[in-house]
Amino acid sequence: MSIQNNIQGLRAEVLLNYLYPELMQRWMANCKGTFYRNYSEDAIRIDEEGGWVTLSRDGLLKLLPQGLITTEQELQGKDFKGKHERLRQRKARLEELFRPFDSWVLRRNLRSEEELAELLENKLDILLETYFHLNRKDEKNVYVRQMMALLPVVNRRRGDIHTVCNVLQTLTGHRVTMKTGQYNHTGRKNGNQPLVEYQIWMPSLDNTAYNEKQNQMEELCRFIQEWFMPFDTKCLIELKCKHPAAMGVGFTLNYNTRTDERH
Description:
The chain has helices at 12-19, 80-121, 123-132, 142-147, 154-157, 161-172, 207-227; strands at 28-31, 43-47, 52-55, 175-184, 192-202, 234-244, 250-253. The protein is α/β, with parallel strands linked by helices. The strands form two sheets. It has a four-stranded mixed beta sheet, covered by helices on one side. It has a three-stranded mixed beta sheet with strand order 1-3-2.
């Protein structure tokens, strides 16, 4: 497989892990030298069947002093063609000798690249566990789990009741309206505090589905109250859906209504 020019700059480790993750520990590296980097990408050629990848990189052989490969006397005198051929063969044997070490370095880099990719993929979960002490994988409420993705920017969104309304509409896939008002839990005249109520308009649900959805909304409401509302503002989520009555007359159930399947 020849590598086209549309992936210029892509590291070989990224490309190999993406295309052939199952071959991570089988690749053999053929380092052609950084001279080729001026004319081609990092991975010059990939032979997935033979397990070979040709790289425009310097191998470990490049670290050896040049004097260990050839001497100045060998480059002088007659029979230059023969000397050049002997040097080429010597270099080929040394490259063959160092190829397992170059391959070991490539495989190690492939493993590091895989771990880095996993870390970047799970960075949200790591962030939530480290700074918010929340485990998104253990959260069973799908709405709360999705809402957790906004916690890294909660310092800019706390108190933004309109953004919460838009998020609820996106999460549920239904129309959401918002009402603001006041509530009083002290019984005193001057004890009124802000109230935000979100109404989610849903289609008809049977008793079981309605109760399940209401429980989910109650958990979501507590989560929003804790993380996205100002400390003095109360949040309510009210379900609005048409529920068929026994006599065939539909009526609207709200947040404070709980149905019971037992008659």
